[in-house]
Amino acid sequence: MGLELVGVSSEDKRQRVAQELKKSGADLALLTQLDSICWLLNIRGGDISRLPVLLSQAIVDTEGAVTLFIDSDRLPEAFSAHVGAGVSVASPDAMADVLRAQSGKKVLVDPATSNAWASLTLSAAGADIIHGSDPCLLLKAAKNTTEASGIKACHIRDGVAVSRFLAWIDREVAAGRMPNEAELADKLLAFRQLDETLADLSFDTISAAGGNAAMCHYNHLNQPVPGELEQDNVYLVDSGGQYPDGTTDITRTVAIGQCNAEVKKTFTLVLKGHIGLATSRFPTGTTGSQLDALARQHLWAHGYDFDHGTGHGVGHFLSVHEGPQRISKVYNPVALLPGMVVSNEPGYYRDDSFGIRIENLEIVVEVETSGDRAMLGFESLTRAPIDRRLVDLSLLTEAEVAWWNTYHQKVWQDISPALEGDDLAWIEQACAPL
Predict the structure, then answer these.
(1) Do 279 and 408 reside in the same domain of the chain?
(2) CATH number of the structural domain spanning residue 269
(3) Which residues contact 191 (CB under 8 A, 6 or more apart)?
(4) For the segment 213-224, what is each residue's pLDDT rounded down to a tens digit?
(5) What's the maximum distance between 2 C-alpha atoms anywhere in the chain?
(6) Do 361 and 297 share a domain, yes or no?
(7) Integer Cα distance of 23 and 20 in angstroms
(8) For 208-233, what is the HEC assignment?
(9) End-of-domain residue from the set 139, 174, 206
(10) To which H or E segment does residue 246 belong?
(11) Which band of pLDDT confidence, cut at 50, 70 and 90, is reported for residue 87?
């Protein structure tokens, strides 16, 4: 991963981690989180489906020196020059001996991400274990300007693929064809693959028709037969791509035919919560837990709720579920920082009937106000239309309609230049003002 993609050299990242280690009082840290190691060394790999990492472990010390435990024959010749001085490679088999050599050393170990074997080995060797967070987590979560620019760019390309897919669905249904969930997922992948930079999907696509959409993490591959689109119900598709300049994650709920008033009502309540979070302003030091109710307030007012978190962190060509930040009813002490990317995905699910979710990715940005407090807010990264056919306009305020129109104007401006013919005509009506 060159500087044109990541913005900061491995040497500079390792020095920042070294400073964090000194603050913690540790002599070195054990790194077992795969995306932390890849972020620190500006490398990516293909050892795990949907997650572009290398199976490895590492140790970093207060000088920024790193020992990477991986078979050296797996590394390209340019690896040493790429990472710079201070990185040595050792066989995974040597890790036990290295840990046993840390007698008397203060070793930072993240109990949330490391395994028991490493801690037991260090303890038996007489090392002083300091339990604390992986020192890469916060640094990795707050994207620099190069990473942020890349993430914005890949969301436009990803939005082109998703928009082509949504236009195709409407044409299929209008022609009386009802593709099944597997055919739909494959078609979306085919549209993404038109972009040669696509490295992989960021997770297995959730392609859920009708009542299947009521299962938050439904997978059609686990079913005896994939479900088919249901007339006068919704189709939910939650998907994402891995690109060298970023990771995407988007959910859209699509009307198939004429949905009833109850579906439109709950969809609009979900939309109001999505807008409430997207337009929020909050002082520095605010956690995602403090914002979670903004996405639920309108559902709560009508006696509804959803049983999953509102938002998770997303990496830069790394894990689509990245910590330590999170937006959830469950308490999370991590304050949101400029550059963090989080999902905004409220939903509503009715067993065996239908499921609704609207998900955009947002990046935390500094916001100017007339007050005397430093304030933060969100900038939407995702670029694809939200289905206007499911909106009950009587439930929206003028401010919410204004958000919708502004958002869809951005989608039109960013996506339409890449479309033509029927796809261009479709997105023009999909992005028309409410």
Answers:
(1) yes
(2) 3.90.230.10
(3) 161, 162, 164, 165, 168
(4) 999 889 999 999
(5) 73
(6) yes
(7) 5
(8) EEHHHHHCCCCCHHHCCCCCECCCCE
(9) 139
(10) strand 246-247
(11) very high
Contacts of 73 (CB under 8 A, 6+ apart): none
End-to-end C-alpha distance for the chain, whole angstroms: 42
CATH code: domain of residue 78? 3.40.350.10
| Token pair 């509804």: residue | 304
Please tell me the total count of domains within the chain.
Answer: 2
Which residue, of 93, 121, 139, is where some domain finishes?
139
163-212: pLDDT as tens digits: 999 999 999 999 999 999 999 999 999 999 999 999 999 999 999 999 99
β-partners of residue 241 are: 201
Average pLDDT, the chain: 97
The Cα 250–Cα 392 span in angstroms is: 22
d(CA 108, CA 60): 10
Q: Do 71 and 175 fall within a single domain?
A: no
Residue 181 amino acid letter: E
Structure pTM? Answer: 0.96
pLDDT digits (tens, 9 = 90+) for 39-70: 999 999 999 999 999 999 999 999 999 999 99
- Could you tell me how far CA 391 lies from the centroid of its own chain? 26
CA 316 to mean position of chain CA atoms: 9
Query: What per-residue confidence (pLDDT) applies to 79?
Result: 97
Backbone angles phi, psi at 58, to 5 degrees: -155, 160
pLDDT at residue 274, as a whole number: 98
Alpha helices by DSSP H, listed for 136-179, are: 137-141, 145-174
Q: Are residues 164 and 49 in the same domain?
A: no
298 and 370 assigned to the same domain: yes
Q: Are residues 112 and 206 in the same domain?
A: no
Cα radius of gyration (the chain): 23
- Do 305 and 346 belong to one domain? yes
Q: Other CB atoms closer than 10 Å to residue 428's CB: what's the count?
A: 12
* Domain with 421 in it: 145-430
Same domain for 209 and 300, yes or no, is yes
Q: What is the pLDDT of residues 104-157, one digit of tens each?
A: 999 999 999 999 999 999 999 999 999 999 999 999 999 999 999 999 999 999
